[in-house]
Specification:
With 246 residues, this protein is mainly α. It is 54% helix and 0% strand. It folds into two domains: 2-99, no CATH class; 144-245, no CATH class.
Length: 246
């Protein structure tokens, strides 16, 4: 009943600037009502706002909305868990948090993803943050088995090693559109932080879902090439067969 009433009030404010609607949501936090009925009100508001957040409709006051949206996600999922910069601390409303699901994670990732998908040769500043890396790994852990690309990954590895003539077809359920870039974002983060084995792993996983992504092929080739160069300069014994495979 509480949530239905608040949703009604939310729409009642639609004649005002969208930013004004958040005053209603903030009042629920002060009363520790923000996660009532499993956070239905906050989830409803986020479902209305997040898909349009980067649109012209919100452009003039997006920066004002951002801390409120962060607070809403914190109330729901206790994310982000790391300390915020001075003056930006999350308010603890002493409410039970909601379990993050694979479906609801799409809103969370949509908010924290970069505005522009980083390219393999773009600056590191355009990559995800360490907080987002931890978040994406958690989301991947929530994925149902149907999205597991293990069989495709094995065939892709054979293709990269020259043991298959044709690019393998996808043998798993494609990721939802909102999560289609999760592996690429991780790969890009690891590549630009010089964690090359992890970068190769996630570039390969991304190619299982997005086989035509040029930046993933280019990033993987550079990461594998850097690994080989490091191995050649290490003065350690090299297994010729393994070296050629890589």
């Amino acid at each position: 009943m509480l949530v239905n009433s608040m949703i009604f009030l939310y729409f009642l404010s639609s004649s005002y600037e969208n930013y004004a609607k958040f005053s209603l949501l903030m009042l629920t936090g002060r009363r520790s009502w923000c996660c009532a009925e499993e956070g239905s009100l906050l989830l409803f508001a986020l479902e209305q706002i997040i898909p349009r957040l980067r649109s012209a409709e919100f452009a003039s006051f997006r920066s004002k909305l951002t801390p409120h949206i962060e607070q809403m996600f914190f109330c729901l999922y206790e994310y982000p868990t790391t300390k915020r910069p001075k003056g930006k601390a999350m308010q603890e409303h002493n409410v039970p948090h909601v379990d993050l699901t694979f479906e609801s994670a799409q809103l969370l990732l949509d908010f924290y993803r970069p505005d522009e998908l980083p390219e393999f040769d773009s600056y590191r500043v355009g990559s995800i943050t360490a907080d987002a890396e931890a978040l994406i790994k958690k989301i991947i852990g929530l994925a149902p088995e149907e999205y597991n690309p293990q069989k495709t990954l094995e065939n892709l590895r054979l293709y990269v090693e020259g043991k298959l003539d044709k690019m393998p077809t996808m043998e798993h359920t494609p990721l939802p559109t909102g999560l289609r870039n999760i592996n690429y974002l991780l790969a890009d983060y690891y590549f630009k932080n010089n964690e090359l084995p992890k970068a190769v792993k996630y570039y390969m996983l991304d190619l299982c879902h997005n086989p035509s992504r040029l930046d993933a092929w280019a990033g993987m080739a550079l990461a594998r090439g850097s690994q080989l160069e490091t191995q050649m300069n290490s003065c350690c014994a090299i297994n010729e067969t393994d070296f050629i495979k890589r």
